Every structure is written in structure tokens, then in C-alpha cells.
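Blinded run. Sample ID left blank on purpose so nobody reads anything into the name before looking at the predicted structure. Input follows.
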Amino acid sequence: MTQRIALVTGGIGGLGTAICRALTDAGHRVIATDLPAAPERVAAFSDATGGAVRFEPADVSDQAQCADLIARVQAAEGAIDILVNNAGITRDATLRKMDLAQWNAVLQVNLTSAFQLCHHAIDGMIQRGHGRIVNISSVSGQTGNFGQANYAAAKAGLHGLTMSLAREVAAKGITVNSVSPGYVRTPMTAAMPAHVLEKTQAAVPVGRLGEPSDIARAVAFFCEDAAGYITGANLPVNGGLFMGF
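Blinded prediction complete.
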């Protein structure tokens, strides 16, 4: 298998760590990016990934930092072959109570960052005739969710970006796909009230929350050289919580 250079945003969170580990296990050279973090958090991430993943701090909601991040990674590691847009935040409120700052913050991190990083990475992929882009969407982007108009809009928009870019670069050896997790056992779901979490889990047909590794395996699959005939797809990994056709 050819070793590829992979960049994972939101890389030191619960889901990001699992994605980094899965891509490393697949033989790739992985760089994780996330907001600057305390040394102990970076050390914990390094331990969780066996010290094999390099951390590059950046705020991917900032246009200039996105451009600088891509330039730094390519200068240090070589051309980026795999881009996983996993960075995401929530700023929950009902639409009546949501202010523009909450709306903009979520759209900027969850959607605009993916546009910016794709924009800066895509030319190199086109020049080499190979690339894999995986955008982490959400079941909320398929069904909506109470109090998450901003998050659901961003995640639905992320798959719209996926399909459009997939059409633009399909003939260049580049695939662009989405993975839509359901409720996954991460610090984000751990912060949910216990009774809400219990109700949510009871609604999942397989009877449990997802594990970060469930999502990471789907991402690693899309990144394989052999997955070159799949593009513009959305893979729901939600335990049957939502089944679309």
C-alpha cells in the first residue's frame, strides 16, 4: 500500500483521535490539527496515537490560518493526499433564541473551514492525479434536530459541498465523500443530561451509542486507494437511527 499524507481537522478530540489512529494503522503519515491545546492534552493525544501523529495547532475558522496550515504541512511533510474535515462545534439554542454570533460560529467552524481547506489543498491533488477528501457530516444534517438549526444547516451544507466538489474533481483521480455519524460516545455526548442520553440511546435500533472507532473505520475505508469508484456519497454510521433511501 502506498503511504499517503493525511491531514485531520478537529484531530485531537474524541472522534479526531480515533480517525488519526485508524489512518495511522492503515499505513499513512497523519497530521492532526486543532485549536492550541494545553501540553497535557497534547501529551494524552500523543499517547493515544502511539506518538505516530504530529500535532499542528491552528484555528480552522480563520482563513489566513487555513492557508498557513496547508503551507506548513506541505513544507514539512510533502503534498497532502488525504484531507478529513472533522472540526466541529455546537452553539445550541432554539432559533427564536439563537443570535447571529451563535449561527456564524457554527457555520464558520463546521462548514466554511472545510471549504477553505479544500480550496487550499485541491490544486496539489489535481496536479498529482490523486486525492481523498472525507467530510464529517451528521445525522442532524439529514433529520434536523431541536435547538440545532445552525449545526444541522452546517452539516447538511457540508454534504452539499461534498457532492458539488466530487463532480468537479471526479475526472482528476480525487474522491470526495461524507460520513454522517449518529450519536457517538464522545465528550460532546457525555455533556448531555443523563435522561436525554438514555432516551437517545433507547431510540437507536442497534441499542447503543456509536464508538469513535465505528466512524474512524468508515473514514479509513473512503481513504483507501481501492475506493476510487466511490465519490459524492454519504455513508450514515448511526446504528439505524435514520434510514434514508
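Unblinding after everyone has recorded impressions. Strands lie at 5-9, 29-34, 54-57, 82-85, 131-136, 174-181, 234-237.
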